[in-house]
Amino acid sequence: MSQTYQEVRAKHDEAVRWRKRALVKGGFALWLVLVALWLFFHAVIAVLQYWEAGVTVQNYRRLQVGMAEAAVESLLGEQGEAIPVNDWENREKRWRGDKLIITVAFDTELRAKHIWVDWLVEPPPQPTPTFADKVRDWLVDLRM
Predict the structure, then answer these.
(1) Does residue 108 sit within a domain?
(2) What gap in Å lies between CA 27 and CA 98, rounded to an integer?
(3) What order of strands is seen across the sheet that includes strand 81-83?
(4) Residue 66: DSSP 8-state
(5) Model-level pTM?
(6) What is the phi/psi pair of residue 45, to 5°?
(7) Alpha-carbon distance 54 to 100, whole Å?
(8) Residue 100 backbone dihedrals phi, psi, to 5 degrees
(9) Among 54, 61, 58, 65, CA closest to 115
(10) How many distinct structural domains can be found in the chain?
(11) Is residue 92 part of a domain?
């Protein structure tokens, strides 16, 4: 039982089409996996940088008047230098970083009363608030 040339050719063409489909599907799946990994690692890096304690511009922008001293120290680190103040109602601490020095005055309830910054380099431009920033600020305002 011998196959004709047309039958062999049809089987070959079908095998080639199947391989091409498999190659395209595999390539697309590989592309999806690589994009997902890229997004995942960038998200992890962004989260780590977002929550990194230390004297950074991002952490300076997160400071708010009324924050507890523990919250300020969790952002800037506990190595804050206590500054002697003649006023018994205030207490000041200073944190030094590579680009800036942040000084925070605390009231008697250990809440941030004043926040100062001294730039050791040229200050960065103010970021344009994104839609997510506006929504977050709106939600924070609702909570207060």
Answers:
(1) yes
(2) 45
(3) 81-83, 91-96, 100-106, 112-119
(4) T
(5) 0.52
(6) -65, -40
(7) 11
(8) -155, 165
(9) 65
(10) 2
(11) yes
What is the pLDDT tens value at each position of the chain, 144 positions in all? 678 989 999 999 999 999 999 999 999 999 999 999 999 988 887 777 666 678 888 888 889 999 999 999 988 887 788 887 776 667 899 999 888 899 999 988 889 999 999 988 877 777 788 888 888 888 777 765
Residue given tokens 């344009």 in the structure block:
128
Pairwise CA distance, residues 124 & 58, whole Å: 11
Q: Which two tokens stand for residue 94?
A: 């200073």
Q: What is the rounded distance in angstroms from the CA atom of residue 55 to the CA atom of residue 32?
A: 37
Question: Is residue 84 domain-shared with residue 113, that is, in the same domain?
Answer: yes
Within this chain, do residues 44 and 67 fall inside the same structural domain, yes or no? no
